[in-house]
Write a sequence for this structure.
């Protein structure tokens, strides 16, 4: 390209020399100016090429980031769905148990009550570790993503997760500080956890025929009833927190899908 411009310039100089006399100094001056212009043009072209290459490299990196984010968020969305499905079952179990509370006699069979109690034995929690997202935040590579709506949802995701984990910690605190004492007093773990089933996982329980659950005493225990009510409220908050996370994950995945087209 520079050779092409130089050829045109030299032709113009030669034409100027044949049309009218020009001083030797004038010809050198024009030649020097032409060389400077050619160098400037060359630099501008080189910069444009480098800029284009950098933009293409950033687009490739952005695409790779989006592909990896899509994989991670699909997994997290599925996990959140799974937890909410189990939470619905646990809430239904609590509602049934509350019907039994403070009754003069048992209205459910012992096996049914053990099955309902087994839902409270699950200590599942959402996996909040997100190394890719942490990497994007810590390195500033989040700015590579051009979609502002997507970037906004990625930025609020950790805050939504923390909101959810706060309720998870509350449930764990209730279980450790209050429920465990009550359970040890009234419940046979062998009877209750024989009904436990989450992700096709079952406890390996050694049965003890001499240790039976005192269902009547348990469901008339004031602390147990209060814990059921407290747990139910916390589970509802956790459920709603997960719904927000699922909705945010949906928006993130939809934006990623559009950007990858």
């Amino acid at each position: 390209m520079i050779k092409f411009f130089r050829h045109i310039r030299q032709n113009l100089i030669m034409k100027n020399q044949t049309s009218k006399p020009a001083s030797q100094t004038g010809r050198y001056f024009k030649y020097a100016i032409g060389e400077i212009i050619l160098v400037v043009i060359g630099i501008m072209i080189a910069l444009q090429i480098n800029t284009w290459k950098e933009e293409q490299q950033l687009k490739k990196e952005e695409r790779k980031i989006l592909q990896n984010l899509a994989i991670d968020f699909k997994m997290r969305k599925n996990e959140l769905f799974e937890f909410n499905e189990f939470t619905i079952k646990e809430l239904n179990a609590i509602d049934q148990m509350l019907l039994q509370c403070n009754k003069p006699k048992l209205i459910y069979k012992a096996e049914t009550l053990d099955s309902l109690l087994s839902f409270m034995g699950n200590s599942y929690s959402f996996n909040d570790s997100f190394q890719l997202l942490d990497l994007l935040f810590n390195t500033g590579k989040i700015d590579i993503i051009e979609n502002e709506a997507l970037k906004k949802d990625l930025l609020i995701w950790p805050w939504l997760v923390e909101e959810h984990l706060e309720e998870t910690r509350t449930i764990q605190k209730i279980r450790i500080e209050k429920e465990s004492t009550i359970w040890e007093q009234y419940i046979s773990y062998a009877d209750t956890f024989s009904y436990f089933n989450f992700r096709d996982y079952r406890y390996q329980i050694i049965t003890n025929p001499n240790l039976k659950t005192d269902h009547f005493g348990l469901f008339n225990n004031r602390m147990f009833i209060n814990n059921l009510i407290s747990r139910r409220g916390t589970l509802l908050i956790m459920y709603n927190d997960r719904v927000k996370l699922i909705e945010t994950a949906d928006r993130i995945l939809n934006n990623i899908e559009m950007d990858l087209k």
Summary: Residues 24-100 form the longest helix (77 residues).
